[in-house]
Amino acid sequence: MALPGRQPEVLSIIPGVALGASEEERHAFIQVISSREGKSWNIHFPFESFKADEKKLFVEIAGNHFSTEEIILNINHEDLILSGCVKNLETHSFPVTLASPGIMGWYAYVPFMECFHGVVSTSHTLWGSLTLNGNKIDMSEGIGYIEKDWGTSFPEAWIWMQSNCFPSTNISCMLSVAKIPFLGHVFPGFLGFVKHGDELIRFGTYTGAKITHLESNETQASVQIQTKEKQLTFLAELGPASKLVAPRQGKMERPLLESIMGTITLTIKDKDGALLLKETGTMAGIELSEAGNLKIN
After folding, report:
1. CB contact set of 213 (below 8 Å; sequence gap of 6+)
2. pLDDT tens digits for 22-63?
3. What does the alpha-carbon distance between residue 259 and residue 242 come to, in Å, rounded to a whole number?
């Protein structure tokens, strides 16, 4: 979430449930990152407090509600008191078809993938306010983004970046590159999109696109992707980072760092090399987890 024209404020709010292998490992959780506070929280809730709809995005955890339409928060836990309601208006849904059910394409039908990924809204307008530790945050006319993950483990190594805060207000993008185990082998799989006005450029391993350049370390990543018609280059710079926890074999125990104040420079050229777009997005979400281990063949 970001607030144009005012002091920048970004909140990342991650509800979920860990099934684990035993009763002791089962719990619901809400992870929060605040750019203003410069820190993160990982709040545990009883497993029984988690409720979800099987047909649409709707999650409830101990009086906190998350859906495509709105977020209602009522967290009162030690050093995090977060409450309020924010509406999601004019959501731009990622297209879903039988042949290509979302951002993963046909890979979404593979039953033994470690991790599945979905984009719910590439960008939308926010309306409402939240109160974080006594400070009211007016989110009205801010910008939101919604995605989801499910499975047993995050990849061994990955790059993830997302921003919809570009000088041109009609741009949103996301890119994920990861080591993907598949049928006894490991390959560098990737997926993502760029939404520019009414145009949606989607790309991934399943589309026939290729990564032609990849260079990354603990603070930045440069990825160049060639589709049939365009060349896309993403240069991500990590900002201040906060601690989160990711799944490993069903347990929420793998530490990672996520920045919600990074930058992404996006360059798009046509197949003849002519420049179509070059802009830098701010207040970007970026994760570079063991990213130096990612190599292209």
Report:
1. 222, 223, 224, 233, 296
2. 888 899 999 999 999 999 999 999 999 999 998 899 999 999
3. 6
